[in-house]
Amino acid sequence: MKKKDRRPEAYRRLTHPLVRDGHGSLVRASWDEALDRAAEGFARARAEHGPDAFGMFSCSRATNEMNYVAQKFTRVVMGTNNVDSCNRTCHAPSVAGLSAAFGSGGGTSSYEEVEHTDLIVMWGSNARFAHPIFFQHVLKGIHNGARLYAVDPRRTSTAEWAEHWLGLDVGTDIPLAHAIGREIIHAGLANHAFIRRATSGFEAYAEEVEPWTLSAAEQVTGVPAAAIRGLAHAYATAERAQLCWTLGITEHHNGTDNVRALINLALLTGHVGRYGSGLQPLRGQNNVQGGGDMGAIPNRLPGFQDLLDPGVREKFESAWSTVIRPRYGRNLTEMFEAMESRELRAVYCIGENPAQSEADSGQAMRRLSALDHLVVQDIFLTKTAELADVVLPATAAWCETDGTTTNSERRVQRVRKAVEPPGEAREDIDIICALAARLGHDWTFADAEQVWDELRSVSPEHYGMTYDRLAEHQGIQWPCPSLDRIEPSYLHGRLWEADPARRGPRAPFGIVRHDPPVDPTDEEYPIRLTTGRRLDSYNTGVQSGSLASPLRRGEMVELCPEDAARLGVVTGEEVRIASRRGAVVAPVWVDPGLRPGLAFMTMHFPDEVDTNSLTIEANCPIAGTAEFKASAIRVEKLTGGTAAGEQPTGDKLTGEQPTGDRIQSATATTAASTQPTAAAGRGE
Amino acid sequence: MTAVPLQPPRRLIEFTLDGEAVRVPEGATILDACRAAGKDVPTLCQGDTLTPKNACRVCVVEVEGARTLAPACSRRAEPGMAVRTDTERARHSRKVVLELLASSVDLSTTPRAEEWIKEYEAKPERFGAEAARMNEAPKVDNDRYVRDYDKCILCYKCVDACGEQWQNTFAIAVAGRGFDARIAAEQDAALPDSACVYCGNCIEVCPTGALSFKSEFDLRAAGEWDEERQAETTTVCAYCGVGCNLTLHVQDNEIVKVTSPHDNPVTHGNLCIKGRFGYQHVQNRD
């Protein structure tokens, strides 16, 4: 058996630019040469194929200031709205769902309110591992007397703190939410005064949820009717309640619908717009909230202002002396599709690693390789950077630059330079401006604060946040339109106003339907694979890989004791895991928190086990987020000698037969090769 | 029905501190009032993010009419009370506490211990060399933490930080009773065999350096730890979206320690393993 070396694997910092030479290798270059090559490729793509042949992948890890400049580069220098970031792979459905309901894409509450609420529902969120310090606020709440309900297919370390755990089947969130809504209505617990005054579409909603009786929901979700009823009554009768969710809700092909289904419950009970009552999507990256707020998304200008609003456009056009195209750009998912169709020719990828973070990573690599021109700006030579024509070494935003980031509770906080960057690495904004200059736009920002002040001048929600005030208050939550006032810690208090004019637009119920996962389990792929994070690791492991963690055990496929016994495998034993898209080899970990038919993996060690070669690129049509949370897999026991020799990265279904012995009783004869990529059909 | 009543605004309480009238919010301790009035009362087991266990008794003050000295860190201010911080009796008590602690454990990395010993004219050496219970090599059983029992004063702060006051992991407890009482990971387990999740929140509150980051321990052992050469810069963590504030302690362009501001609304001084230790990636410089 291959013994995994658990010492830190070190991605080394990039210290000088690289360009691809005539022989196809990346070689060291001067900054001038690299910037010339980068700019020239962008100019060529635009000249030959138009502005929409360019796409910007902005960075959810970088500062607000960098995201502001990156989207400005995209819109002003390149003339397109094709700018997006990896929020697409996580919380875009939360933003889409919340803004559809309330006109604003941020979480409605603050961490502190969780300490002073009566009921906390953690839905599809293992915050104990993925957001540990948020969970400390939850624990304070529990110690103060709040009840915690956990809704998750896995009995996670978060669920261990819950009064009740509702272990639903993967992808049945809407039936569960609808059954809760129906029960609240039928029990006479709906807040009709709130519904009448502040919402719209209640009748259609009541009709939509009517078929979801407790027993119907029990059959589909696997959650006992009494437990569903218990949550419904607890939520509806609590004075204050917090509904929190993470990627268990959003990383589905219908993630936005899932989010709407949860928001409906808040509208039904009036658990929004009050201190201690609200909706909290827990964001996965230090600045994924800020990236969107800064306009590094294809449909919004800075300050989350709608691109299609002529007044908004006019303001930015005069501020930037430019013309903004009055149509939404492509989101990350659509940009990847446009690579396939060759409509997208040049990509400027800043601080992202889509080659490993996208669902169906084999397909993502192929599409990136097909680009005419790929410029990657990063602190490491990631797998994505290895595909690039030009690699630009950047600074680590969080400790080598000044600026701000925005957290899950909409708090804009100062990021400060603490260490000097290595070698020739340059700040992101500096690099983008150098490229802009080569493409005819001379922008000079003396420092990050000057960028921020420009943003403040065009974004009313940020206007009151000067750097001085941000330091004084240890961060300020948006909206902050005034220089001498701090707004309440929760959003949408307007919904409770007596005066209809001040109450503003009604919050519509989302009329959404159950739609099971795209990748069905069947006899050949009988196990549902879901993915998530562990405590000591992070995303594709580029950052966390060099943390020497005593907790780390590498990538393992977690199975419940029953499935492990049925397969005849034990903890530590390597098995082959195959989906309709790829196969990997990984050791087993037996976790009694899982149930028969449910397996769990992470994407933290893609260089050892490329979990995303298994996942399906079935995308939410509204937000573009892929269904990372629900793949169908088969787990195969390996016979003695094969484990050591086999590459633990995916043999990408190039037609070769799997090597392992199948012990699954079902039809294992036709190899996975008969199933092309995403056979079950994508949302396109 | 609410189970969690929201707090009404707090009233102000007036009392006399060293002969002068002071006003503090209801619920404040005598120590809060002392600090607000600029009085320097020594503390060890008290931490600004924790409810203290009153274990060390170094902060005692005299409350008029009370039979015994009161720990300023825990005694709440009451209307009309008269408190004296600098009486002979209070000073003598602090002196003895410092003597008992300094004679039995190593206070060399306890901030201000030396200054207090001088101020209160404590003479720990009068108990003789046998008073010391120092004979243990620091425990280094993992890559992140070092536990140096020679420096432990049994203040319980780490127990509380790991327990229900913050982390709720309950890896740290007091094992043994009486003279045999000592802080332990569960029943004296090695850290990697315990429930420890390496958040470092125990180290953040340890007042004596009994718990330390291995990065600091190694630099000290090599004689290279130099706080004069360190800059502290507060920034935001690069991992999840919670937005924890990190204070990076940087020496010679290397991050040597990570803490968090104790008054920060996001963290209250607490971090997880990623925020606390996940910085190495930026320093993998060639």
UniProtKB/TrEMBL annotation, chain A:
- Give every Molybdopterin dinucleotide-binding domain span: 528-630
Q: Which SUPFAM superfamilies match?
A: ADC-like, Formate dehydrogenase/DMSO reductase, domains 1-3
List UniProt keywords, sorted A-Z.
Answer: Iron, Iron-sulfur, Metal-binding
| Residue segments, region Disordered | 640-684
Which Pfam families does the entry link to? Answer: Molybdopterin, Molydop_binding
Biased-composition ranges for Low complexity? Answer: 664-684
* Database matches in InterPro entries: Asp_de-COase-like_dom_sf, MoPterin_dinucl-bd_dom, Mopterin_OxRdtase, Prok_molybdopt-oxidoreductase
Q: Where is the Molybdopterin oxidoreductase domain?
A: 13-437
Residues crossing the lipid bilayer are none
Q: What is this protein called?
A: Molybdopterin oxidoreductase family protein
The organism is Streptomyces ochraceiscleroticus
Q: What is the lineage of its organism?
A: Bacteria, Bacillati, Actinomycetota, Actinomycetes, Kitasatosporales
Automatic annotation (TrEMBL), chain B:
Known SUPFAM superfamilies for this protein?
A: 2Fe-2S ferredoxin-like (SSF54292), 4Fe-4S ferredoxins (SSF54862), Formate dehydrogenase/DMSO reductase, domains 1-3 (SSF53706)
Question: What residue stretches are annotated with the 4Fe-4S Mo/W bis-MGD-type domain?
Answer: 230-286
Which intervals hold domain 2Fe-2S ferredoxin-type? 11-89
Where does the 4Fe-4S ferredoxin-type domain lie? 143-162, 187-216
**Could you confirm whether the keyword 4Fe-4S appears in this record?**
yes
Question: Which Pfam families does this one have?
Answer: Fer2_4, Fer4_7, Molybdop_Fe4S4
Keywords, in A-Z order: 4Fe-4S, Iron, Iron-sulfur, Metal-binding
> Could you tell me which InterPro entries the record lists for this protein?
2Fe-2S_ferredoxin-like_sf, 2Fe-2S_ferredoxin-type, 4Fe4S_Fe-S-bd, 4Fe4S_Fe_S_CS, Mopterin_OxRdtase_4Fe-4S_dom, MopterinOxRdtase_cofactor_BS, PSI_iron-sulfur_center
Official protein name in the record: 2Fe-2S iron-sulfur cluster-binding protein
Annotated source species? Streptomyces ochraceiscleroticus
